[in-house]
Amino acid sequence: MTTLHRMRPFLPIRHMAVVILPMMLAASAFHLRPVRAASGSDNFSPVSASATPTWSHDIAPILYSNCTTCHHTGGAGPFSLLTYAAARRWGAQAVTVTQSRYMPPWLPEPGYGDFADVRRLPDADLALLRKWFRAGMPQGDLATAPQAPKYDSVWQMGKPDLILKQAQPFTLAAGGTDVFRNFVFTYPLKQSHFIRAMEIRPGAPQVVHHANVLIDRTASFRLQHPTDWQTGVPGMEILLDAGNTFDPDSHFLFWKPDTPALVEPDGMPWRLDPGNDLILNIHLKPSGKSEIIDSEIGLYFTDKPPTKQPMLLQLDRDDGLDIPAGDKAFVVEDSMTLPIDVEALGVYPHAHYLGKDMQAWAVLPNGEKKWLVWIRDWDIDRQAVYRYREPVQLPKGSVLHMRYVYDNSAANARNPHDPPIRVRAGNRSEDEMAHLWLQVLPTHADPKGPDPRLLLEEAWMRHRLTRTPNDRISLYNLGAALAGEGKYAEAASEYGEILKISPHDSATLIALGAALDGSGDWQKARRVYTQVVESAKASQICDARFDLATLDLRHEQLNSAEGEFRTQLASCAEDAETHAGLAATLMEEGQSDRAKAEFNRSLELNSENFQALLGLSGIELDAGDNSPAIEHLASAARIRPSSEEAHTQLARAYAQSGNLDGAQTELRRAAQLQPGNPTVHSALAQVLAQASKLEDAIAEQRLALKLLDDDADGWNNLGVLEARTGKLESARADFERALKLQPEHAAARANLARLPAAR
Amino acid sequence: MSLIPRSALWCYTALMLLFALFVSTAQAAPLHATDLQGHPVEQLTVAGTKVVVLIFAATDCPISNRYIPQIEALRRKLSSQGVAFWWVFPNPGDTLPIVRKHGQDFSISTPTLIDSQQELVHLANASVTPEAAVFAVDHGSLHEVYRGRIDDRYIAFGQERPQATHHDLEQAIQAILAGRTVAQSFGEPVGCSIIPAALKP
Predict the structure, then answer these.
(1) Per-residue b or e along B83-100, where b marks 16 or more CB atoms closer than 10 Å to that residue's CB
(2) Residue of B nearest to A77 (CA)
(3) Which of A73, A87, B156, B157 is the most buried (most CB within 10 A)?
(4) ipTM, 2 dp
(5) Is the pTM of this model over 0.90?
(6) Which residues of A touch B165 (CB under 8 A)?
(7) Closest of A549, A515, A480, A451 to residue A4, by C-alpha
């Protein structure tokens, strides 16, 4: 009958983002644009030692392939470099900033990490620029000049599927120091989408130097700033609550002016769910006049769910940052051993103004050293995410290292303190940070094992705890990772460590309840939830009571569950999930009319509540109301395409209404999602049999029995199919097997009797 | 023809150099610079002016633009003490309509000069935007006592302090007002080269 669906993820896996996501930002005065391709003139040939370079022949190609994506009218660069006149106007600066390698912006040292989209200009281009300037910046033959690239102000990838707009425009003051601000973009849709690309249009590109987009799964930032989130919240780094599911940060959503569209690799879209927010963490540099920042984020959807699940790992040494005033070379290091094979896809080093020399590398189990990145002269204004040209293979047992050097002397021009003062870790720009993010993709994972990212999370948190043994976030996330791996007792023990320090920490108690439930001790779990319900703050009580009600429902404590759901509706915010939970309880109690009313109320509150759609359709199917059931289930499958249950139920609805093709399609989808689920294969065998595809049906039924071989009904069904295709001896063996499992199986006995006697 | 003694030649050279630092407001038409109405500006001072400050700027130079709010604030702070500020736009591309529009966009209320013949550039010996030149007013003539960066926020392209730590321009002005010796700038101004008048855009 009604299956119980988890209303809220039952295991609170991860509460706080460990993650202080980065903020980023920007460059200063001039942004020549980078993108190193071959700059038109193949660097070494066309100019003989004595020939005088000209704009038409030599310089325009360099500017067009390296500079003008930012340096065009309306672009992020402060001036255009598209014409000869413009190149001459800016020739002196162009030579200065390219020779010093301030432009194009590119910090990594060549040879220490093999990156895609390298923007460093070849020496030959620098020589051409120098020679051209010294020769008086001659134009050359305009007829031979390459055609100028065209830039327009529309979305680079065409019209987005969804455009999010800043809640209110923000006015950046004309002068003063740099501004770090966080704008919240609420996701308005009622269904989840996979995002294959994102483009940001900041409104005033010349003052926006870089930005980081963070996904706030729980709208925690907006809740932390109820009165001012719409105007944007100042701050360089922010801390988000990652919510109750293990959904680790996985993508670098880092934006800088020369890469307005962030396109994810095939098979690696990211995801937005109803209730999520995007936070644009932005670094603004005043231009001299006040500017209006009115950003838009364009999202491009894909129907294809991810086939690869990367994860962002972090090395950090914030706890070691205590930099004496005047210290020219303060060093911090961190290293961590990888618990599984991964490949590294990209790296994002991060410090503030005192960071100087930043190195990261891996030592493989065979002793080989692989450089991940080396920046000799860190500049927060030109920070970036660097993606590897080819994934860097890092086998299990590899040790990741970072080594950062800080200059807190007066000789460091970027030192925000004059005179220097002691500096420690913190979120303000004048504090410091020591972070290295690595995007890794687990490889060679055991398909039967837990999500390999849980193993990374576990190793990461254990590593953090070696330095800060009582860190609540690390303990919490470690507990959650262990629970996710099914190690409930170990998880409960980690939560116990937090409770030793903070015995009344409600979030931890709720997580402990879930772990105890997972370990089989649901009575103790019940006591823990009850403790929270009786003692905690209102918001926590609501969470705990919901979990308690769900637990009781699952363990068929229907009276308690119904009472708890009803109390919840009376004393907490009315929500679709609670109505759906109450409805499921009523279903279990056999009160399907009242259950139907509650499911309907749930759908009034949220027409896309998955549990209500599924539950209501079950009632409708039982009553033979196939059409509304199909409609509800089609919505459920659209909202949660990865739900095997939605597809199986929809198949049932199609089969009941005679649409065998539809039923087959849905069951095949369900089988793809859960290849190891025997029920799906059995159901598919039944539908195929009805469609007279007997051989296919036999194959599916055999598959189902291979997965679950003590199913008497299954053997009987296989026997029938084999008998119908003339395989009488096989059929006989099947019926006998069914009877061996269940001697009083009447159908099997009757079928066996009908078979002609064995030869 | 008599030989000029070596020492006398030296004196003559020194004298010329010294003269180069003076411009007499008594000169009838030494300047072709215009204001934003296109009228020639012959007087950089009014009665009571003790110090004249020229800020060389370019409408399309980002660092130059970034200093506008700061210079405007400095003028508001010091104008009552006999300090006359002038924005000077010397680049060939910075024509009257462009500079006028720029002034509106950036809310400039300090008097502005278009130095199309770059006479003020030569007078002050300026080379980049933004760059400041400070003149003491002495019986109607101007004596340049400081030329260089506004402050030390920018050290080079790509090397920028979060905030300035040495406010060279303001210190120079305050020194004159207080009758102290003016310290010369320690660092070169960072910005965009002034485009020679011969180079029409």
Answers:
(1) bbbbbbbbbbbbeeeebb
(2) B62
(3) A87
(4) 0.79
(5) no
(6) 418
(7) A549
